[in-house]
Amino acid sequence: MTRWALVIGASSGMGRATALKLAADGYDILGVHLDRRAALPRIEALRAEIEGMGRRTVLFNSNISASTNRKAVLDHIRETVAATEGISVLVHSVAFGVTKPLLGPGSATEEDLTITCGVMGHDLVHWVRGLLERNLFESPGRIFAMTSEGDRRAWPSYGPVAAAKCVLEAHTRQLAVELAARKITVNCILAGVTDTPALRVIPGHDELAAAALRRNPHGRLTTPEDVANVVSLLCDSRAAWITGSVVSCDGGESVAG
User: Fold this and answer.
1) What angle do CA 42, 47, 52 make, to 5 degrees?
2) CB–CB of 19/6 below 8 Å?
3) Pairwise CA distance, residues 150 & 158, whole Å
4) Is 5 within 8 Å of 91 (Cβ atoms)?
């Protein structure tokens, strides 16, 4: 039986690593990304690597901050996925937000806060609703969203994203309860500081990474592949009782100091 995984944010970082790991695990991959023309060779490389594993892949380059675009992608997915197939895994790995202070010159505007919480927080609910409305989600199923230690720590200019992560975790708990009858689990993965394009747009990211490296008892930063491996583990049928949780994937970084 064909198993599809839908990865939102598939072109880089944790999303890319997770798409590749799930393909290696035997899933066909639906990927959504937002990239300019210069990045398209990287996307084609991702496609080639997945197809080289003998898996199907369909990639959508779309700005999903617009609800009309998200709905168009969902409709295209319904046309792509055969009537006898469905999506078993949804991975929401979106880094599309504003990193600005909350107060003072250059601070986040009302629109900045709304967009960041919308795309990195509420967007998870919109994708889940869209899949269910189109009868695309399999039972049992798995849903994962990517959070960070910034949900509970204050980092310079991270306020808008921190708020979005809190929204995301709240939705994870609620969705876990509402989807239990369908045997669909919902969990957040809390990665340690990871060197990704999303990290590099945070002001002071070099200092953030250096501090994490000093704290981490393993003496290294978390990698996207570490996160992908945790997602892979939680897709196992033996993990069906883990839901509504924030699962740390940081090598002990968050408890070391």
Assistant:
1) 125
2) no
3) 7
4) yes
Residues 6+ apart with CB under 8 A from 125: 171, 175
Give the C-alpha separation, 53 to 45, whole Å.
Answer: 13
- Tens of pLDDT, residues 48-103: 999 999 999 999 998 888 899 999 999 999 998 876 689 999 999 998 888 899 99
Residue 63 is encoded by which pair of tokens? 């700005």
Instruction: Classify domain 4-249 by CATH number.
Output: 3.40.50.720
Cross-strand pairs, 4: 28, 87
Q: What's the rounded Cα separation, in Å, for the pair 93 and 192?
A: 15
C-alpha neighbours within 13 Å on the C-beta side of residue 242: 19
- Residue spans of beta strands (DSSP E) within 41-169: 57-61, 87-92, 137-148
95-137 pLDDT, tens digit per residue, is 888 889 999 999 999 999 999 999 999 999 999 999 999 999 9
- Domain segments of the chain as ranges: 4-249
